[in-house]
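DM between two lab members

TW: hey, do you still have the Phytanoyl-CoA hydroxylase-interacting protein-like entry open?
JB: yeah, one sec
JB: this one, 360 aa:
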Amino acid sequence: MAEPRSSTVELRSLQLAEGTESADSGIGDVDDLPLPQQIHISSITCDSFKISWSMDSRGRDRISHYFIDLNKKENLSCNKFKHKDVPTKLVAKAVPLPMTVRGHWFLSPRTEYTVAVQTAAKQPDGEYAVSQWSEIIEFCTADYSTVHLNQLLQKAEAIAGRMLPFTVFYRNQQRESFLPDRDAQCRHLLPAVKDDSGSHGSPISGKLEGIFFSCNTEFNTGKPPQDSPYGPYRFQIQADVLFNHNTNIYFGDFYCMYTSYHYVIVVLAPVGSPGDSFCKGRLPVLDRSSNCFLTCTKEDDGSLSFRHAQDVILEVIYTEPVDLSLGTVAQISGHQLMSLSTANAKKDPSCKICNISVGR
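TW: and the structure you got?
JB:
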């Protein structure tokens, strides 16, 4: 049996109806209207969901509105209503179920919510008779879709700036991170799950396994900077080892941390690797030789040349283990600028440059 066609309710239009001037007026006593039961949440995105429920047929023809109480889960311990049985959230006209609730300013990605529903009947005097509240259901909104990531991508492209040449990827850590262990595997840098830094809805946070590398260069020298927020020892590897025509490149995120610096995350995944499989369908794929952030171009003599964007700080995630013997480890001469660390950094939700309309 086909699912009934759902109705879409824009949260911006979910205003308290006529006769409900405040949260404490316009609501009648609990009536014998049918109680919503077996609440079902489906088709969850980062900024919308479908909701449906079952209810008795008795009194159903009297229903004119639905009252929807939607709260972030962390607020569950707060006073649920300003007044007994008075909703403080959303009022929607009764429409066929399932109903799509959508509102970019209201719902955030990757956020746990609770929802409860009342049915209501608008009275001739403008007040409402209401049912009891349904059970409380919990659900979590989804990650950004590729549509949303493409919106972020367009914003990042707008400020990327001109491209500068580079020759190496590098990674700074404490000295012990590069010391060999008894286990031969420890002669490799191993992928780890990405932390929660950056955009809250990015599908790579807490899911994609990879190794962070940098490639930004100093404008005046064309070489990697000598300062680092991550440690005084640097592993350095020729760019063509990690990025070549057998590597796919994906856009992962664009964010800032309450500063003028903006960060772009790109993912390098060898073709056919587990990381490549993870990224396909989740992240926008970039052209290796022609994009605004990180390029690999074949020259006339067959060699590869590399360029990075000047006006953003690139964070490159390589999805496979890297053999330390393929590069070099040396101590850098600069300072550890811990204030520049992006570990679990929170994105500035007020920045107009790097935010999109579906949440932070």
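TW: got it. The domain at 7-140 is CATH 2.60.40.10 (Immunoglobulin-like). The chain has two domains: 7-140, 146-340.
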